[in-house]
């Protein structure tokens, strides 16, 4: 069963925030230690940036397909 869009809109930022707060509590040098790609902190900062970019380009592609089909 798939989750609805409003549920995902609320759930994904909460999961991202939980991951960010977890890595902030676990990492001893939180902001400076996030540059290493092997660290969990790097990905907890990358996730909140990646999701809105993905949603934007997904909607942009969908809108382009809709406009192309109707013209």
Automatic annotation (TrEMBL):
Transmembrane segments: 42-65
Keyword Endoplasmic reticulum included in the entry's annotation: no
Domain of life: Eukaryota
GO biological process: GPI anchor biosynthetic process
Lineage, uppermost ranks: Eukaryota, Metazoa, Chordata, Craniata, Vertebrata
Pfam families tied to this protein: PIG-Y
Signal peptide segment: 1-23
Swiss-Prot/TrEMBL keywords: Membrane, Signal, Transmembrane, Transmembrane helix
Species name: Callorhinus ursinus (Northern fur seal)
Assigned GO CC terms: glycosylphosphatidylinositol-N-acetylglucosaminyltransferase (GPI-GnT) complex
Record InterPro entries: PIG-Y
The protein, known as: Phosphatidylinositol N-acetylglucosaminyltransferase subunit Y-like
